[in-house]
Amino acid sequence: MSRFGDLEATIMRAVWSAQEPLRVRDVVAELRKGRDIAFNTVQTVMDNLFHKGWLKRAKEGRAYRYWAAASQEDYAAGLVEEALESAPDQAAVLSRLITRLPRDEIAELRAALDDAGRREKLP
User: Fold this and answer.
1) Is-contact 27 12, C-beta < 8 A?
2) Helix 6-17 to helix 24-31 angle, to the nearest 10 degrees?
3) Minimal CA–CA distance to 54: which of 76, 69, 74?
4) Per-residue pLDDT of the chain in tens (123 residues, 90 and over written 9)
5) pLDDT at site 72
6) Whole-angstrom Cα distance, residue 32 to residue 29?
7) In whole angstroms, what is the distance from residue 10 CA to residue 45 CA?
8) Separation between Cα atoms, residue 29 and residue 93, nearest integer Å
9) How far apart, in whole angstroms, are the C-alpha atoms of residue 103 and residue 98?
10) Which pLDDT score is estimated for 121?
11) Distance from C-alpha of 95 to C-alpha of 102, rounded to nearest angstrom
12) What are phi and psi of 105, to 5 degrees?
């Protein structure tokens, strides 16, 4: 799994934060709040993200509406998985990561681990 490029990441953040599927022009309007960018550039990158499986789309008139095929959490989890696969001691990496988390996130992690343990025990 490869990391998003800068523009891909910016587009995906816009899509993830949207409450409904977006047209390319919607994403362009959002991006132009912070930078000058060409419509065709955004359209090409969104088409690439669709072909890579990160975006889904449906035709609406002459345009497409796009939405995320996976959540931002799924993307981040994939990056963490990839990083762990390259580490000789995965437990040490996870331990260091956990020590950097705030207490409330450690409590959420503990609850998620407990939940995963309960699901493993189900027949």
Assistant:
1) no
2) 110
3) 69
4) 678 999 999 999 999 999 999 999 999 999 999 999 999 999 999 999 999 999 999 999 999 999 999 999 999 999 989 889 999 999 999 899 889 999 999 999 999 889 988 888 876
5) 95
6) 5
7) 11
8) 40
9) 10
10) 80
11) 14
12) -75, -30
pTM value is 0.80
- Give the Cα-Cα-Cα angle 43, 67, 13 (nearest 5 degrees): 75
* Ramachandran sector of residue 61 (left: φ over 0; alpha: ψ -120 to 50; beta: rest): left
34 contacts 42 by C-beta, under 8 angstroms: no
* Token pair belonging to 39: 């419509």
Task: Judge contact between 68 and 16, C-beta under 8 A.
Answer: yes
